[in-house]
Amino acid sequence: MPWFVRLHNAILLRHEMKILAINPGGMSTKIAVYEGMCPIFSESICHSVDDLSVFASIADQKKYRKQLILESLIKHRISLSEIDAFVGRGGMVRNLPSGVYRINDAYLHDARIGLNGQHASNLGGILAYEMAKEGNVKNDAYIVDPVVVDEYDDVAKFSGMVDISRVRSFHALNQKAVARRYAREVGRDYNDLKLIVAHLGSGVSVGAHKNGRVIDVNSALGGDGPMSPERAGGVPPLALIDICFSGKFTYQQIYKMLIGEGGVYSYLGTKDMQRVELMVRQGDMHARSIMEGMAYQVAKEISSLSAALYGEVDAVIITGSIANSALITDWISSRVRSISKNLIVYPGEDEMKALAEGVFDALHGRRAVLEY
Questions:
Q1: Are residues 199 and 190 in contact, defined by beta-carbon separation less than 8 angstroms?
Q2: Is the torsion defined by CA of 224, 113, 45, 86 positive or negative?
Q3: For residues 196 and 316, what is the distance between their CA atoms, to the nearest angstrom?
Q4: Please, are residues 332 and 339 in contact by the beta-carbon 8 Å criterion?
Q5: What is the model's pLDDT at position 14?
Q6: What is the pLDDT at residue 139?
Q7: CA pair distance 152, 312, nearest whole angstrom
Q8: Mean pLDDT along residues 327-334
Q9: Model confidence over 137-170: pLDDT tens digits?
């Protein structure tokens, strides 16, 4: 690290630095300001379908989301000039190893064009960078564990078709955060553990963590693996080909069947898993079969990934918003208990804290700052 960067960081560390974290999602923009690692405020700004429908692309949403962030900061009486470091959720850029990355021109280019796909997370680093420059040109902007983290073992990348790799995208930020949390709680080093982490949210990703690397994981966006509240996951390919070439559907319609209107929504017409659970508890057997079917698929994915770790699994961790459902976690647990004696449930997700913590640790020298 250059001397002037070390000097700048040392000055920051003399006081409790303020960190602004930005996490754009499909229907929300989450922001949080931390002083040290203590949250000053956290807010999730919701966007309706009508709000976003006026924009032709995700990139076109930047000005709209930025204005809402600035208004929130004003409401909480925080100016950009007070912020010492800015961090955004990393988007669909080129595949990278896990880490804390300083945002540069190459990153901004790849995020703007959506090098690996279109997702709201592409705006995270862009917004963080722009606000850093407006606040104080000496400040840096960062991303942490972007959705395109690639630490796969080579054998895990084969899809069966030479033109298609299994490497896509997953919930790297939260998976890494809860894996490190578990390591701290049991007094172990994350780099010495073998874990299976299942993130259950609007998308589902299940990863095999071996000695600090996610060596295999299903693609949570338009890929393989379990169905989710709104995504189809892995579907029988020949049947999908028949639908695609039936002449009944456009590309956009098929896309929605897979992402947005697939999974639980396809069967029940809702993505709200709390509503689905209420239906189950009220005796709706069809809803029960769909909900249990999703849990079954997650359990199968966990079981298959135990092979990636040669059956040596220190713990299975279930996380994400759907992990708040005892029904789901109990159904999964009952099928995978033989894989590890340690089955841990961390309900919800704390991606904002993970973003801030990554930068905080990097500026304290506990994690390296990497260049994209």
A1: no
A2: positive
A3: 5
A4: no
A5: 45
A6: 65
A7: 18
A8: 98
A9: 566 899 999 999 999 999 999 999 999 999 888 9
Summarize the confidence of residues 79-103 as an average pLDDT. Answer: 95
Given a cut of 80, whether residue 92 has pLDDT beyond it is: yes
- Across 321-359, b (16+ Cβ under 10 Å) vs e yields bbbebebbbebbbeebeebbeebbbbeebbbbbbbbbbb
Tokens of 280: 């189950």
Which H, E and C letters describe 251-302, residue by residue?
A: HHHHHHHHECCCHHHHHHCCCCHHHHHHHHHCCCHHHHHHHHHHHHHHHHHH
Q: Is the pLDDT of residue 93 over 70?
A: yes
Q: pLDDT tens digit string along 332-352?
A: 999 999 999 999 999 998 899
pLDDT of residue 295: 98
Sheet holding 28-35: strands in order across?
Answer: 38-46, 28-35, 18-24, 85-89, 141-144, 100-102, 369-371
pLDDT of residue 117: 86
**Count of other CB atoms within 10 angstroms of residue 4:** 9
Q: What is the pLDDT of residue 118?
A: 86
Residue 100 forms beta bridges with which residues?
144, 369
C-alpha–C-alpha distance, residues 12 and 84, integer Å: 7
**Highest mean predicted confidence (pLDDT) among 41-55, 133-147, 186-200:** 186-200
Q: Which residues contact 268 (CB under 8 A, 6 or more apart)?
A: 276, 279, 286, 287, 290
